[in-house]
Amino acid sequence: MYCVQRTMIFLGASVRKSLRCSLWLAHIIFMGLWHVNADPAHPCFQSLSEMKCQHLSLYFVPRNLPANIKKLDLSHNFIQTLAGLSMSSLNNLEYLDVHDNHLETIETGTLDALSHLQSMNLASNRLHKCFKSQRGAFNCLPNLKILNLANNNLDSDMVHCYLSNATSLVHLDLSWNAIKELFSGMFDGVPWLSELNLSNNFIDRIESGTFYLLKDLRVLNLAANTMQCISSFDLFHLHSLNLSSNVLQFFLTNSSQEHYQLQILDLSQNNLLFFPALPRFHRLQHVNLSGNCIAELIPSPNFTEEHREALSWYESVAEVDFASDIEHAVSHLSHIVDLNLRNNKLTVFPWYFLPKMNTLQHLNLAENYLQNITFTPTSKISGPMKGGQSLNISSLKVLDLQDNKICCIPQGLFNLLPGIEYINLKSNNIMLCPSHHTTKESATAREESCSTFSGAQNLRYLNLKNNGIRHLPPRVFDQTSVAYLDLSHNTGLDIQEGALQEVAQSLQILSLNSNWMTSSQTRLPCLKWLKSLDLSNNRLTEIPANLECSPMESLDLQINYFQILDEGRTSLWRYSLKHMTISSNPFDCCSLAWLDHLLAAKIHIKDLEEAYCVYVETNISEALTQPPQHSQYCIHWKDYYLRTGIIIISGFLTLCSALCYISKKRREKFCMICKLRRGKVAPEATEQANTSTSEGKQVCFTVSNKEFC
């Protein structure tokens, strides 16, 4: 070392620098090779009883890990093999995560020491490569409850091989594999399964008896497969079944009198033509049928040729009376809480069935082809009902009718749904009823062609966005307590005087954006509980009157014609207003005192960086956040008014003086004329009168028989 140091003293500066870099690079290469070819003693980070080894580019499980750790995370590495030597000391391990590696092999006896292991994640590996040597790989783990084998390219036989005698498993994830069919005996090695995830495979066939031994199975996920029909659903103990995103056309259960425990059924994003034929005795609470091809809930003789052929074929194969089974299913949803029929092809909904769903709280009929709402029963099981008067379902709270073709909401709807709190009518053709009618007949005719929400006493949320509403008359919301009202995207909307008076004591959120309303069309009453107001994308020049009493917290004024904001009005909100947007308005750069007041009150203006103002005289614009750049273009209005006032007063006084002077001269000349006529003026005075004139007119008079002009 002494010789090396002595030698370096005599080397040039550039040579010394090059030598140091070479030594440093050699050290890095050596350490890198050591890490790849040798097991690092401690490359991981330990936090209490958890060891984190993810994203370390490991090719082997680190040796000499502490024996007391309970959780080991080896995810996102390049590990290909789980070897016994590296795992032998981890007797207390409860959670092992090896997902997203290159794992192909689990050596025999590797997991024997992990007697306390409860959860293992082996997702996103390559376990399909050596599956024949892995039979019963998990049968030595007596406490293993959760196993994730997702995304390993496993087929049915490989799954059966790995699950041999894994009797302790309760939760199993086999999603994102290559499973094409489920055969009888495939899950015999895991008889105590409670939750099974088979989503995102290629399953198109389920052999009878596949789940026969799984008496404790409660949750089954078969979403995103390729199944075309379920002909005999017989899992009595199942609580949740997900069959979404398949290609199902029919769903039938067997005709057993067994009581099913099914509570959640998801059949969304399929090709169902009709309502599913459910078990006769069930406890279904949540049914999702969105994204199907259901044109009517109860099959009728007016089928399309395609529907008739499909139904005839299925009835001949399954030997069932399909229409009768469906009608029974619809009329016996006595435990239903949530029914989702969004994005189907319904033109009519059988509202007369609702009283039979006496626990229903959420009904979603959005994105269908509904044109009107009628209560006339057409089914033999509906019983005697007259005009909907005997109908009542007080449990329904949420009704979503968005994106249909509904033009009127009959008054009877709120007699049927007295407890309704939420109605979404966005993107329909709603026509609101005018406030005046003369006779009972005209009122009845009005209700058949227009909508009113009067009497919906519990209604809190109402969305009327994009309905083409041009006028909002009074009394539409009579006897309601609406807190959220969306009237946006109704171009040219005119809010008539008193239209919102009925909700003045309840309204908290009001949206009027994108209506292209002028200030004269925005007649709002004093809304004492209003907290959020959206007036964006209109043609307003001033904030609507009567809002000073509102405890405003959020105000959106962007994309309007505001030049100045009323300081007196905004100052009243300085203690309540929290958020505000003001961009895309032609604010006057010479009148920004209102902005100073808002900023002084610490009101958060979200888009202040995007807001600009304009110098009126020159059309020059600049950002509101910048100090004034062109203040010379501003007219100082106080000086302007003072100077103008002085000029006007001076002119007025000058005019008065001139008039007084002219009047005085005329008076003097008139007196002289009178004296001359009376002969009281000396002859020399006549010469002064020879040229007398008054206001440009010649004056003539006679003195001593001579006429003078």
Describe this structure in words.
This protein is 20% helix and 15% strand. The protein is of the alpha/beta class and 709 residues long. Among the domains are: 2-37; 349-378 and 388-434 and 446-541, Alpha-Beta Horseshoe (Leucine-rich repeat, LRR (right-handed beta-alpha superhelix)), CATH 3.80.10; 637-708, no CATH class. Strand 8 (146-148), helix 4 and strand 9 (171-173) form a beta-alpha-beta unit. The longest helix has 41 residues, at 637-677. The chain is elongated, with a radius of gyration of 44 Å.
Number of strands: 38
Shape: elongated
Q: End-to-end span in angstroms?
A: 139 Å
Biggest β-sheet: count, sense, barrel?
A: 23 strands, mixed
CATH architecture of the domain at 349-378 and 388-434 and 446-541: Alpha-Beta Horseshoe
CATH superfamily of the domain at 349-378 and 388-434 and 446-541: Ribonuclease Inhibitor
CATH class category of the domain at 349-378 and 388-434 and 446-541 = Alpha Beta
